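We store chain and fold; thus.
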Amino acid sequence: MRMRLMLLGGGNALGQALIRLGAEEDIGFLAPRPPEAGWDAASLTQLLDDTRPDAVINLAYYFDWFQAATVSETRLAQQERSVERLAQLCQHHQVILVQPSSYRVFDGSRATAYSEKDEPVPLGLRGQALWRIEQSVRATCPQHVLLRFGWLLDDSIDGVLGRFLKRAEQPQEIFLADDRRGNPTPVDDAARVIISVLKQLDCAAPLWGTYHYAGNEATTPLALGQAIISEAASLHPLAIEAPTAQAHAAQPDAAQEPQHAVLACKKILHTFGIKPRAWRSGLPSLLDRYYRHG
């Protein structure tokens, strides 16, 4: 890798997966520690002035955007301002910006898979913030790659998977939607995609734009929950054998979560040659790592 790569958010689950995978391929990252209060416009300005990388992979707010149960409007607004400043700095220093986004930019009103050409209409605060961030990056920094991911699953104790497994240890019903659809995407698979994109950008291929990536085989939260419990039961005692089906409209997060969140991944395949991997094949190592951490 000729490019000097800077990773913001090297301490979170996706950042760690990226560092792990990079090490296997002899790809290193500058992964600076964030300031005590997190990255803001001033600290980012200082950082890029001092380091001048060739590309920045911005995973600084990964947990809030992809794993947290809720995020305050104030916090999202601060993150928006920081990414806007980061995009300005990348444009000023001619640095490539690799920026994650999410299926949450869509409202889930259509039953067919969303492509990059479909107009975003986000539902909740997170989706709205991510859509504004996308627009800001596009307008400010032409040398960008925006990666919209599906339902990301990682091994963090308090992430989406961790919260589900904690509930499964208690003798209680877990209600999951059987009429909501999306693509589970293990964090290692997301890291593989980012590495593949970086390799091609390293060859000076100007493949700027927005791309979708999500694990192969769309499914429902109910079927995903069943698959997780089946796999996890061999590693750790659980109190329930299967989740209970419930309608999307009855779920507490129905106003924020798109009912249909399946992403079409043809563009990333045709542009970068990245093929979707089956999410089921990533569950064993993900759960093994989760229980080893826990």
Q: What stands out?
A: The chain has ten helices and eleven strands.
